[in-house]
Amino acid sequence: MANGTNGIRHVNLALQGGGAHGAFTWGVLDRLLEQDGLQIEGVSGTSAGAMNGAVAMSGFSKGGKEGARKALDDFWDAVSRYSPIGLVHRSPFDQAMGNWNTDQSPGVAAFEALFSLISPYQLNPTNWHPLRPILEEIVDFDALQNCPQLKLFVSATNVRTGRNVIFDHKNLTIDALIASACLPTMFQAVQIDGDPYWDGGYTGNPALYPLVYNCASRDIAVVQINPIERPGIPMTAGEIMNRLNEVTFNFSLMAEMRAIAFVQRLIEDGGLTGHEVNRLKRIHVHMIGCEEAMLALGMSSKYNIDFEFLSHLKHLGRKCAEDWLHAHWDDLGKRSSIDIRKIFLGE
Question: Judging by DSSP bridges, how do beta strands 219-223 and 9-15 pair with one another?
């Protein structure tokens, strides 16, 4: 699949998980789906990224790009309806100051204490998940499974083996989608074919290898939610947990990026010959994100589903996607638009 053929540029998307911060990806997808001449071939997603991917693909299968955009709007609107019963909201002071962080929210301490002391098997014995009825209403799994235009790969973590497991759209079920977003401190493990599954972010946030091996396009754009670098030393309990969460959920992505950089170096240095050259391909890597804005948001804001906050993240995602398209449209099909070795290897 050659980029530039008939003026069409193809790209694969890797969508990170991050709770309510996934509304940033909503905005990115909303803008990319508007772009004439851009065709998405494959999507790999974890947790909120998997939800965005499944919702968009279901909408696309029935209504094309506009159908995908509407499905995403409907999904995040439905998520926000749970906000009144949530514990995490901005404090009146933060609202007055225009601060989007929620670390000082009165409900955050109660939220953290609740899930750190009580197992979900005790707190939620029926294993109710608020996203299940929303996904059942919005995602047409039959249409998604039979969609010929797009490929979807959803990551989950097998609790028994500790391995990353990929569910592609052809066998994707609502249980697999819920499993991809199953935080073990909040929800019981999701049972699929006799095995328990947790959030895919522990082993692939998101997984890149399904896009490398199963898609023709050489371009992968990572929609980044979790900051890679954070200045300073975390000192408070909240800061420590926030940074630990970021490091943990970025680890698998960094490992895969190192592998891509290693193969690219072998190709560039002429270290591969014969059938090895034909078997491996150069991958063009791109990133769409706004680390500065995400650095200002604490971990607790990932549970803030106030529509005002979600809308703010959507608009931020749209702007970042717009800026990326303007700066790197001509890079698609030709080169990476980031320095992988500098960002992920520190070279």
Answer: parallel
3-state helix, strand, coil in the chain (%, to 5): 55, 15, 35
How far apart are the C-alpha atoms of 29 and 17, rounded to whole Å? Answer: 14
Residue type, 276: E
Q: Give residue 118's pLDDT.
A: 86
How far apart CA 243 and CA 275 sit, in angstroms, is 43
Calpha distance 316→314 (Å, rounded): 5
Partner residues linked to 11 by β-bridges: 40
Helix (H, G, I), strand (E, B) or coil at 206: coil
b or e along 228-245 (b: 16 or more beta carbons within 10 Å of the residue's beta carbon)?
bebeeeeeeebbebbbee
Query: Can you tell me whether residue 172 is helix, strand or coil?
Result: coil
Query: CB of 290 within 8 A of CB of 316?
Result: yes
The set of residues, in sequence order, having a beta carbon less than 8 Å from that of 336 and lying 6+ positions away, is 283, 284, 285, 286
Q: Which residues contact 187 (CB under 8 A, 6 or more apart)?
A: 120, 124, 127, 129
Are 47 and 103 within 8 A, CB to CB? no
Three-class SS of 120-161: HHHHCCCCCCCHHHHHHHHCCHHHHHCCCCCEEEEEEEECCC
For the chain (347 residues), the mean pLDDT of every run of 10, in chain order, is 69 95 97 96 96 97 95 97 72 71 70 78 89 95 91 97 95 96 92 96 92 94 92 86 86 88 76 58 91 87 90 97 96 93 82
Give dist(CA 138, CA 265) in Å, integer.
44
Q: How big is the chain, counted in residues?
A: 347
